[in-house]
Amino acid sequence: MRMKTFSATLIGSLSAAVIAAVVSAYPARTQTLRPTPETVESHLAAGKNAAGGRDDTPDFYGLVTAICVAPLNGAARPDAPAPRENPNRKATYMEPMQAFDDLYWMGTPSTSSWLLTSDDGYILYDTQRVYDAEDVLVDGMKKLGFDPAKVKYVIVSHGHAGESGGAYLFQSRYGTRIVMNDWDMVEASVNGYPTGKPKRDIVPTDGMKITVGDRTVTIYLTPGHTPGTLSSIFQVHDHGKPLTVVYSGGTEFNFPNDVPHFDQYLASERRLASLAAVAGATIVLNNQSQFNGAATKLRMLKDRHPGEANPLDVGTNAVARYFKIEDECAQAVRLKLAASGITHAE
Ligand SMILES: [Zn+2]
Q: Which residue has the higher pLDDT, 196 or 61?
């Protein structure tokens, strides 16, 4: 019978799988000395192992889950409509928090916006989704004691809805200058900006410096996540001590999944990793708090004891591991695509 044959085959292949798993779980001593061949599995394992967390090192499990375990695997819908206004979403808003002497966080368990402050005004990094910007950013700044009208620059790491959504609000209400490289994406959109689109403003070049008072952000063009993804390096202060931040502007693989796009992504992330290493960055920040654990770490900060490092100040090795996760797990997908002959998704 069809059913019986199927079951027998299934049991047969399960046994083979169990045997294979047992064999690989207990490799012979000599096997472990062989160099590991480059495979999809070897890249994924290397990426996951770089998450750390087992020996009191900072962990990046959110990043591993997002790009190694269950990566997005295609471009976003062209001109996806803006997320609708959703009163239930307000339940996810978190209290804004101070991260360093001069850097503040506003967001949700999954999103981050950062306010770099000086006596002469502020730089806001990423702007939440269109209907979240008023509550999370404008009200958030007021709760922190800052005047949103003093935001001199908004830096939009890339043109997706969760980063560019509030740019129009700041430009139209406060005259804030908008630094963004995905203007084409915003301008081509019909449905993404129901309250209004930001008008094309500052188009950054690689190495451009954005300065407000004594705070300077150096911008790097890191195409991959989107064509115009921006990253940057800047300093913050922790009890007066200067610390270097690398801001990684785009992370997930929701772009056309083909070999050339992964090559571009890998080239950008490798360059950013080396810039971060040269600059001695001990902090890695981004626009999605689950990737670097920002929301959780900032709650830990409230229980910081004298002499303890700021939970976001993870050190140069952890910053390197963050980029290694991206690198290895992007290589895994690239290798799969190359093996299946998908060299062009479009
Ligand atoms: Zn994005």
A: 196
CB-neighbour burial class of residue 77 (10 A; exposed 0-12, middle 13-18, buried 19+): exposed
- The Cα–Cα gap between 63 and 72 comes to 12
Do the beta carbons of residue 315 and residue 55 sit within 8 Å? no
CA of residue 254 to ligand 1 center, whole Å: 7
Confidence of residue 54 (pLDDT cuts 50, 70, 90): very low
pTM of the full structure: 0.84
8 Å CB contact between 180 and 164: yes
Confidence check: pLDDT of 30 > 90? no
> Is residue 343 pLDDT above 90, yes or no?
no
41-63 exposure pattern, b = at least 16 Cβ within 10 A, e = fewer: eebbebbbebbbeeeeebbbbbb
- Rounded Cα distance between 96 and 217, Å, is 22
Q: How many angstroms is it from 146 CA to the middle of ligand 1?
A: 27
- Ligand 1 centroid vs 158 CA: distance in angstroms? 7
- How many Å lie between the centroid of ligand 1 and the Cα of residue 76? 9
pLDDT digits (tens, 9 = 90+) for 204-223: 999 999 999 999 999 999 99
Place of tokens 């139209």: 172
